[in-house]
Structures are given as C-alpha cells and as structure tokens.
Amino acid sequence: MSPEFRRRAAWAAAGVFVLALVFGGWGLWRVIAPASGDLKGQLASSEASVQRLREQNDALAQRVATLSRSDQISRDANRDVQRTLAERDEEIAGLRADVAFYERLVGATAQRRGLSVHGIRFQPQGDTAWHFTTTLTQNLNRGSVSSGGLQLQIEGTRAGKREVLAWSMLRQDPSAAGLPYSFKYFQQVEGDVFLPEGFEPVRVQVQLRPRNGAAVEQSFTWADSTRDSPLNGADADAPPKAGG
C-alpha cells in the first residue's frame, strides 16, 4: 500500500469522524432544545398556577372576613333585639303593676283606707348612707288633699345593746324637719339617712304627721325594706313613680 493511498485513507477517516461529530451534535441539539422549551413552558405554567392560587386565597380570605363581619353584625342585632324585648317585658310588668295598684287604690272594689304607708325601700349609697323611697296612699276622702310631714325612726343594736335612732340622728341635723308630702291619692317621698358605724338596723318606723288629723305610724322590718323588689311593704303591687 503506497503512502499516498494511506494519506487519502486517513483523510477520509477523519472526514467521516468529523461528519459523525456534526450529526451527533445536531442530534443532541434536537434532543435538548425541545426539553429546554418544555421546561420554560412548565415554569411559566407553574407561575400562572401560583398566581391563580394567590388570587383564590385572597378571595377566600375576603369572603371569610365578610362572613365574620356579617355574623358579628347578626349577633349584635340579636343582642339588641333581646335587650329590647327584655325592656318591653319590664315595661309591661311595670304597667300591670300600675294597673293593679290603681285598681286596689281607686277601683270600684277598692277597700277604703285613710292615710297609710304602702311600703318603703332602702338602697345603700355608701358605707353609712342610705337612700329611701316610701309610698303614701289614701282613698278614704277622694278628691281631698292630704298633706303633712314624714319622719323615720330606725331601731337596731350597737355593741350588743338596743338603740333607737331618731329622725334628727338619721339626718345628722338636730333641727331636721320632716319631709313634706301633699297628695290626693298617693305620693312617693324620697330622702337620705345616715347610720352610725357598728349599728345593725332591725326595724324601721315611718311616722306621718298630717296637718289635720291624728299621726300615723307604720313599722317594717329592715330585711323587708332592703330586699331587692319593686317596693317592699304590706302590699305586693308596686305603685307608679308619679304621685297624684
């Protein structure tokens, strides 16, 4: 084999090798290039999906907030309705008590009574101060005005000994005058009294001194006078707040 032939054969082999590399590179590019394109497409699709999920999450969060606010509004409205119904029930009960009181006082079958104390109630105002409300009634002389003064006297114990507090002591004023009253059928008289420290009240005596006629005195236990009720006393029906 001549040297020239061997040279040509070597060049031919080199050419075939180069062609093989070229075709191999072209084939590799054909394999890799589409994969790279698919990866970019998948990445773009993933980003779009994430964005959609974020939008859906924001929408759900907004809906939850709206529903929560709506539920709170409904709860508040329901509480307002319940409170209003309770107030109406209380008003109805008060009106029924008023009607019962009027019926017992001025109704056709009402028992005729002269000046009397319907009841008395004490409410604490501090360590020693008490506010009292007492209701005076009369239906014996219909249309006539009953007027005069009201005083209290409280009996109790202090240091194990019986003690009676007069009106001047209760008012902390030696010259304290009685509280005035003037009415045809009933009137509520209010005032404040002061109990000394260590004094344990047992009984309250309401003293009425009318301008005309004999004095009236009625007693009530301290327990009944401080019990939580519309107005404590001999009658269960509470009178209206206004007098007449």
UniProtKB/TrEMBL annotation:
Coiled coil stretches, renumbered: 43-70
Keyword Cell membrane: no
Pfam family, one: DUF6776
Signal sequence, start to end: none
Domain of life: Bacteria
Residue ranges, annotated region (Disordered): 215-244
Keywords, alphabetical: Coiled coil, Membrane, Transmembrane, Transmembrane helix
Biased composition (Low complexity): 233-244
Transmembrane segments: 9-29
Protein name listed in UniProt: Transmembrane protein
